[in-house]
Sequence to fold (847 residues):
Amino acid sequence: MILFANIERQAADVAKEVRTGKTGLKIAEGHGKSSLLRAIAGQLPNAPVIVMVSPQPDAHLYAMLSAASQCGAQALSKVAGALGAGGSVSDGLSVLRDILHGHFLLVDGVDLMTGAGDADLNAVFTAVRHQVRDAFSTRADVAVLRHSQELDDSVVRPDLGMPLTNKRWDSSHVWQLAQADVDMYTLAVARRLVLGVGGTDPSLPWRLDTAIRHLWLSLPEVLRDLVGLLFVHGRAVPRPLFERLGLVAPDEISRACDSYLIEQTGKMLSLAGFWHRTSDLAELIARRTGHQRLARAFETQVGDTNWSGLAVLEAHRHFSGIPDIERARAYARFGVEVLVDLARSQSLRRRFEPASGTYEMVLALDQQMRSMAPSGINARARAYALHYAAYNHYRAGRAGPIERTIAQYQESLALWPDNALFWSRLISACLITGWYEEGVRARSQAFERVPVHAERENLLIARTTDHLLRRRLPLQAAIAWGDHTPEGPMQEELRERLVEAWQPIPRVLWGPRSGRVVLSSTAPTRLSLHGDLFRIEILGAVRDARSLLDALDETIGALANELLTLVSAQDEISARRTELVEGITLDAAAPDERTRWTASLTALVTAVSSGAVTHEQRTALLRIWSSLEDRFPGIRRPAIRITDDGMLQMGWSFLQPPGAVFTVDVHRTGTLDWYLRDPEAAESVASDEPAAMLPEDVVERLEIFAP
Amino acid sequence: MSADGSPVPDDRDVLRLPKPPPIFVPADYVPQWQDFEPSTTEKALTPVRISVWDSSLTTVDEAQAFMNRRSIVVAANVATVKAAGSGAIVYEAIPPPNDALRGAAGHAGIEGLTQAPGETKKGRLDRLTRIAGCFQLRSR
Fold:
């Protein structure tokens, strides 16, 4: 029964246009669009196909199977077959196109098929969703749009008019009490029909949210159960299928329709619109129990040839809703959209362990699908699942090497190389783990792979830096920031936070060239910002650079140069040498060999102080090195070691020239034993007794180590 | 399961983690005889052996865990090392509690690296240099 005056007339106008061959009519979102669509359907011959879309991850699959189900069991079976094992959305659409030939098609919410979720998740399934949306949008005779930005003047706007008069209630009085709110009016009518004459009593709630709660609590149990089931189901369902589920008696369904609690459009059942006007209902309904009942009920219809494809889709969705992912997996015939959406929502609710498990399940399904079709769940979906399986695994605090997380992040980026958010997480993970070189490399690769877009710098730099600052990792944050120039006040503020986080300068530092550096607690330091330049002062050395890390590297480099001069000198100890040796510890494993050499000669100074090496040994080593460096500029630096019995050893032995070896053992007295093997001369020579100096004829042959 | 004193099969590779580590390691460095000089502790035992690890029973990471520090890792085939002039290469049990660590079963020792009777100092260094030449740097 129609509640408003203008609906029948407006529906007749639209239906007339459709009957005369006009297609692609659009109806704008607004009160009455459901009534209008229902009325149009009623005025078209041959039971038009009606597809009612809700914003759900599998909406595009539902649209196809729902449309097919209204064209008969064989049609549903064909479309399900084309979509399932080894098939594709393209195959399904191709079959559906033929099936829909000769049918009127009405679609409610055609623009809701593109899905809800974050930008990354939408991007995973964008292509197929758009493909289905476009196919339905083109083919629909009448379509209701939900996004007003897509509307123009050709669009039909529902015009309800005033409520029709009725014998059972005073429509103008109720309209007044409802303050001309269409949903409140419809609810009041439903309340009147369910509760009797008292349903329009002015003392009852007339504000929609409280009225919905009141009606829900006042409903007879069987009707409340029906409304709850349709609420949990979340989208329209063919009435014949719903009746076969055996959850609610058919006459109770009719009673609910007649009472405006639910709506029937063609064969499709759905909740009356007013139920969606409050969030309270979600709290009142036992969703998990609802999903369990619906999942089991749809499961019973999987073997029914009339409904199999749609029953599989809905059983999968409700088992995911419980969530019972093992059972859901059994019915994941058409895709993994619902499982990915479930995993994402588990993760957002900080349920990292189950989220990780759900993503693992998606990956297992991908493996299974790839045995039938090489593309599996598609490369982006695989990348998404790989990335977030690793992310949630890590966040769940499950024991396991961080290398695994990083490796999975890298694997996901190989499949989706322009995903800036994934790069941000990879950079963070490397830096948090202390893999600074890998972090710097990942940052640089990210800028090569992610094309310029409005959010690129925000995701790659600002997000990463902010994340690291929140974890109180100022050094890692500086590496992530690099030489970035802030864009806009938020990034300016972030740079301020970065500078604040470096007050005082951390004592354990790292630079791409200087490696890991430790400052003593008393070493004087200072960081300041001069325009766009960071200025670092350490132990009297000062450098400016656009990157905090470059400023650090250059300051450390200046100190290392000064330190090298001081620790290479054979003369007496100076105050500055002591200040630097005690104030800064360079990385003996730095990638830059010169830094490692300086660190080693500094360690030698310390070794003399501790007695591990004698002053005579150090002096002898420096004398040998100094004379060889003077004689053969560019000669390779020797390996140096201190044996556990106090011998100081120098050794030249490299990939080039192969087989050439020269070693010197410096005894604690400063005397030397040496051994030379020259492959070109095909001979070796060695000292017979410890000597004070290297023989001149041996030194002459050391040119082989000066490439 | 390896037995203490039994020979490491000729077709296996052994890992050597030079001890003590050099305080400076140049780029492109390759093993030299000093990396195969028995330490004072090793010289105090009979027979004198230097520590190596059967790479089929001990991974690089496991071997490094025994050393309790980072160090360079070199590897060579057993038969090649013996042909270059080493003595026997035999499995050697690790005393408790480290015997319970993963990879302990792969511990072995190279014998015959000290100066042999009648061998000159240069002759021994030539022999150790040949042995060192059998080893290649090994990463994870």
